[in-house]
Amino acid sequence: MRAVYYRRLTDATSLFSVPVYLGGSVEAGGLWATRDEIGRHLIGAGSLFLGVDTFLGPIFLGYGYAQGGHNAAYLTFGSLLRSTDY
What whole-number distance in Å separates Cα of residue 71 and Cα of residue 73? Predict the structure, then answer.
């Protein structure tokens, strides 16, 4: 499961404003060997990020944390919402 929310910080009506976004995510998931195990022992995680919409596309800089003390800093080029079409 994943939920992502972000909000524009800059004025959208201004002619020369650079679109800057602040957001976060909350996630829960895991890895299970059988279908009976699905949903047990979920691992929770979350992130905070700052994004800028450039002429090359969106760029996001963020920090994430997962249960067990796992931390990550990331730089993402492109949309945070990935297509599942194959």
Answer: 7
